[in-house]
Amino acid sequence: MAVADSGAEPTVIADRLDIIYKVIAGQGGKGTAATALRRIMKRQDRPTIREVHAVKNVSFTAYKGDAIGVIGRNGSGKSTMLRAIAGLLPPAAGAVYTGGRPSLLGVNAAMMNDLTGDRNVVLGCLAMGMSTAEIQRRYDEIVDFSGIGDFIDLPMSTYSSGMAARLKFAIASAKTHDILLVDEALATGDAEFRVRSERKIKELRDQAGTVFLVSHSLEVVQETCNRALWLDAGVLKLDGPVEEVVAAYIKSTRG
Amino acid sequence: MPTAGETDPAALARRYGLSKSSVRPPLGAYLQELWSRRQFVVSYAAARTYAMYAGARLGSIWQVLTPLLNAAVYYLAFGVLLGTKNGIDNYVAFLLSGIFVFTFTQRCMTEGSRSLALNLSLIRTLHFPRATLPLAYVLNELNQMLVSLGILFVVVGFTEGPAWSWLLVVPAMLLQIMFNIGITLVFARIGTFVSDITQLLPFVTRTWLYASGIFFSLPAKLAEIDAPGWVVQVLAFNPISAYIDIIRRSLLEEHEPNQLPHAWSIAVVWSFVMLAAGFWYFWQAEDRYGRG
Ligand SMILES: Nc1ncnc2c1ncn2[C@@H]1O[C@H](COP(=O)(O)OP(=O)(O)O)[C@@H](O)[C@H]1O
Ligand SMILES: [Mg+2]
């Protein structure tokens, strides 16, 4: 691909990106202090540590105004790649360069499940760097958008997964973003919430330079994106205009 | 045709002013960012305290009960059964001050070593300076320590009456807080990358417990077994002993014969060194927290 001559301003550059998870498989935490000491002294990893190579040698350049759909089967590394772009998961090799701080809107946004919804709103906003005054100003808007209603003062552990997803999305989208990464944030909500959040994403996309969208609905990808990346088992299989990539992807799943 | 320089992603990134997405800010900028998230630290600590006691029927009464029960167990074991208290007039206050000061540091270390591992999904979801988490854990333990100190003041107030020297507790506490922040940051980093440390720490802290002169007066004990004079000088470098000693100096008048040498100076040096070293050591790995 001609990187230099497109004239557009790049916002995200992935350069031979590799992401590896280290997972402790099997019995994990057990073991006596003596064996723990021996392991530390010998500086050897547990024999049961497994490495998952989730993203392999992925390179691409995204430009201002791009809306990029990321498609691929479950476990192909889509979420992992977005986390790396967001700078939340340090790469094992290679690098991601970004202009400004990308924001990740995802359903997996971890909150404190023992705490009530409203405490989670405040904590999440504080962690994103909002001031107390700003949070006070935006609080009603966030709760309204989430549509949680009276449940806002119940612990999040009592929420359904759809409700939790709505609240997390509402919290994360309370900030304006230069580079926006959306990871299946719309999947778990009901139809009404999906419409509302799609509108919100369009709104955010107009403000943002670049949007990445992971979605299982190929229609949503085709509707909102101009370009697509197809990941297969961690490898970038195809990068191009959205129709082309989606067509090739559909063909491979049928074949 | 793009030239070689332009196809190089790193060069392209530099030309358009892009920076690596997971990069460690300079220490100064990092501390500034940390300061701007102080409200998050406070709210997170409050939320954790709340979540900790939400399940218990007695709720936050446990904040008072836990140190009291702890002290009662040690009093039975050492004061009554083993009879270590001989020679110390106000043994209850002596013991309580030792246990509370020690527990403060010990809990910071053990809890702090898990502060990142337990919040891995939060770290992989949101951007914030990672040091906020161990700092919030220290704040939790400080909260507990203040309750314990309240108990201590009541005990000493009843047995000896209030005195002006109590004011020295404030600088003593500040010094220990500085030390604890430092050591918590160190163990937070170690605990993230060497998860076995969590199993090992209880043994380390228990050894430390017996070496710190909590149940008995170190100088008296050493004199009893005819140890050479330099031994007490060496043992006095133990930071915990120093922090315990300066609290006892502030609260207990008859502590004078049992004082360790140079406790205030040793405490001051440990505090500043540990605080600086802790921030520096933790910050060094800031771009690597969250990697599995
Ligand atoms: N937290 C994790 N720890 C270990 N392995 C993980 C973790 N998250 C994802 N993986 C692994 O990484 C691979 C890619 O996962 P993911 O990025 O979630 O895929 P996708 O989002 O495309 O469904 C999978 O093999 C998965 O098992
Ligand atoms: Mg995913």
UniProtKB/TrEMBL annotation, chain A:
Mind naming one GO cellular-component term on file for this protein? membrane
Could you tell me the superkingdom of the organism this chain comes from? Answer: Bacteria
Q: Which residues form the ABC transporter domain?
A: 35-255
| Ranges in a coiled coil | none
Keyword Transport included in the entry's annotation: yes
Record-stated family: Belongs to the ABC transporter superfamily.
Query: What CDD domains does this protein map onto?
Result: ABC_KpsT_Wzt
In its UniProt record, a GO molecular function of this protein is: ATP hydrolysis activity
Signal peptide: which range, if any? Answer: none
What protein name does the entry list? ABC transporter ATP-binding protein
Read off the PROSITE patterns from this record: ABC_TRANSPORTER_1, ABC_TRANSPORTER_2
> Which Gene3D superfamilies does UniProt cross-reference here?
P-loop containing nucleotide triphosphate hydrolases (3.40.50.300)
TrEMBL record, chain B:
| GO BP of this protein | lipopolysaccharide transport
What UniProt keywords are attached to this protein's entry? Cell inner membrane, Cell membrane, Membrane, Transmembrane, Transmembrane helix, Transport
Q: Report whether Cytoplasm shows up as a keyword of the record.
A: no
One molecular function GO term is:
ABC-type transporter activity
Query: Could you tell me which InterPro entries the record lists for this protein?
Result: ABC2_TM, ABC2_TM_bact-type
- Which residues belong to any copy of the ABC transmembrane type-2 domain? 58-285
Superkingdom per UniProt: Bacteria
The signal peptide stretch is none
* Transmembrane parts of this sequence: 61-82, 88-105, 135-158, 164-188, 263-283
Q: Which GO terms describe its cellular component?
A: plasma membrane
Topological type in the membrane: Multi-pass membrane protein
| Protein family | Belongs to the ABC-2 integral membrane protein family.
Q: What is this protein called?
A: Transport permease protein
What is the source species?
Kribbella soli
